[in-house]
Design brief:
Blueprint: H1 7-32, H2 51-54, H3 60-74, H4 80-86, H5 104-110, H6 115-134, H7 144-150
C-alpha cells in the first residue's frame, strides 16, 4: 500500500480497463452473431457512436430513419422471410412485388416496386460517393453481400 495511484490515474486506468473489456465483448459478438454480419465494425466502438447515429440530427424523423436503418443492418427488421420462419400461415414472398422471397438482399437491391426509391436515395448517392472516393473512377461491386455492407 506504499504506492497507491492518484485519484486521476486510478480513474484513467479503470476507464481504460472498462473500455477494453466492452470493446472485446463487442468484437466477439460482431464476429459470432449472424444478426450483426452487415454491421461494419468500427475502431473503438465504446467511445464512438456508430456512423448511423453520427449522421442523425436532433429531430424525430431522422431518429426514426436511423432506427429503421439499424433494424435492417442488425437483421431485426421483420421481413416476410423472417415472419414465415415463425408461422406456417405466412408466405415468405415480398408483399410489394410478389416476385420472390423477401430477404434483406431482395428488399434493398431487387424489389421492383422499390426500384424508384432505391435509384433516387441509395444508388445515386452511393455511386456518387464511390466516384468521389476514387476521384472519377468507378468501382465494380463484386457481389450483393458487399453492396449490402456498403449501403
Amino acid at each position: 500500500m506504499e504506492h497507491l495511484p492518484s485519484k486521476y490515474m486510478w480513474k484513467k486506468q479503470l476507464k481504460t480497463s472498462i473500455n477494453e473489456y466492452w470493446s472485446s465483448i463487442w468484437t466477439i459478438e460482431c464476429n459470432t452473431k449472424s444478426t450483426l454480419k452487415h454491421l461494419s465494425l468500427q475502431k473503438d466502438p465504446v467511445n464512438n457512436p456508430h456512423n448511423i447515429w453520427k449522421c442523425v440530427r436532433n429531430n424525430q424523423y431522422d431518429i426514426k430513419k436511423a432506427e429503421l436503418k439499424l433494424k435492417l443492418v442488425t437483421g431485426t427488421y421483420m421481413l416476410q422471410s423472417t415472419r414465415a420462419k415463425f408461422s406456417k400461415n405466412i408466405h415468405p414472398n415480398c408483399k410489394l412485388c410478389n416476385e420472390s422471397e423477401e430477404t434483406l438482399e431482395h428488399f434493398l437491391l431487387h424489389c421492383s416496386n422499390l426500384s424508384d426509391v432505391r435509384q433516387r436515395y441509395i444508388m445515386d448517392k452511393l455511386f456518387k460517393l464511390l466516384r468521389e472516393i476514387e476521384r472519377g473512377g468507378t468501382i465494380n461491386v463484386i457481389n450483393n453481400e458487399l453492396l449490402l455492407k456498403i449501403i
